[in-house]
Design brief:
about 325 residues, alpha/beta, seven-stranded parallel β-sheet, 11 helices, globular
């Protein structure tokens, strides 16, 4: 596997500075060689992959981690743990009969993303909250909250959700880009750490101020006119299912001024079209600041479009969300 990874990364133009046998050697190599990206398995002799991720968080090393390991929906908790502990991306090891070209392409794309991502130093000084000049004053009403995120989202959510109060506004919906089978593990992890009840949506739920409903991987999460949820199996949009734009646009039409959108770290433009619709209906929009984003993509396009009512470092977002949602 190490030879396969080395050859694959070399073909993509990366310089592989070291290959090692276990987690302890991986940490030592990171200290000595200061690589941009570490490719990491989770099952290793000695210190395992989760242990390496936790150890890296206690150092000043600005290395982004791509976990390359055996994943399946049945073991989704391990994948979510890795993302919550700071891994930027996941790549599944090729299974028997799988086209190796697909694996090599996926690996190259995700290592390139990791190399370009802004690694969050745990000791970094947060930027102070920044409010856009066009911000409208909160009305004090209870709002429905929609949170959207992608790359770096599980780690951000692990920090954000435990700091949110329960009850919160009129209910919360969460769209995190993840494959089918993994969002249930993410919901369970967040539920164990939060005052809010966090669970995967199954469709037909009414919004509850004490509950966060997570869009299940492989389904779009929709809001119906009677303010209940529905799951939509239409084709992926821009290779994404769930697509945050659909949930946000529904929230705009159903809740109008009583909707609050929060956009966290993530690659791409998902959320922008929905944010435009929500802004048109008078809803509020908060984005995560570049200072704390793993990838400043989704929040950037919304801020640059002039749609953000407030831009906050992740450490300041819980208070801002509670205030805007009418907690």
């Amino acid at each position: 596997m190490r030879r396969l990874l080395t050859d694959a990364l070399g073909k993509h133009g990366f310089d592989v500075v070291a290959t090692v046998d276990d987690g302890d050697q991986a940490l030592a190599a990171c200290v000595d060689l200061r690589p941009d990206v570490l490719s990491l398995d989770l099952a290793m002799p000695g210190l395992d992959g989760i242990g390496v991720l936790r150890a890296l968080r206690g150092t000043d090393l600005a290395v982004s981690v791509v976990v390359v390991s055996a994943f399946s929906p049945a073991h989704g908790a391990r994948a979510v743990d890795a993302l919550a502990e700071g891994a930027v991306e996941l790549v599944a090891k090729p299974a028997g009969g799988q086209n190796l070209n697909e694996f090599v392409a996926d690996l190259g794309d995700k290592v390139r993303l990791a190399a370009a991502s802004k690694h969050r130093h745990p000791a970094a000084t947060p930027q102070p909250p920044r409010v856009s000049p066009a911000a409208r004053r909160p009305t004090g009403r209870a709002r429905t909250v929609v949170i959207a995120c992608s790359t770096g989202g599980p780690q951000a959510l692990t920090e954000l959700l435990p700091k949110l109060p329960s009850p919160l506004g009129a209910g919360t919906l969460l769209v995190q880009h993840m494959p089918a089978g993994f969002t249930s593990s993410l919901a369970a992890r967040l539920d164990n750490a939060s005052a809010l009840h966090v669970c995967e949506a199954h469709g037909g739920e009414s919004l509850d101020p004490r509950t966060v409903l997570v869009a299940p991987g492989g389904h779009h999460l929709r809001i119906q006119a009677d303010r209940t949820t529905a799951l939509d199996d239409q084709d992926p949009i821009g290779a994404l299912r769930p697509r945050a734009d659909l949930t946000i646009a529904d929230a705009a039409r159903v809740f109008g001024v009583d909707a609050l959108l929060v956009v966290l770290t993530g690659m791409g433009r998902d959320g922008l079209d929905g944010a435009r619709e929500l802004h048109r209906h008078g809803g509020r929009i908060l984005t995560e600041a570049e200072s704390s984003c793993t990838v400043y993509g989704m929040p950037r396009v919304i801020a640059e479009a002039g749609l953000a009512d407030g831009v906050y470092d992740l450490s300041a977002l819980p208070e801002a969300i509670a205030r805007e949602a009418g907690a």
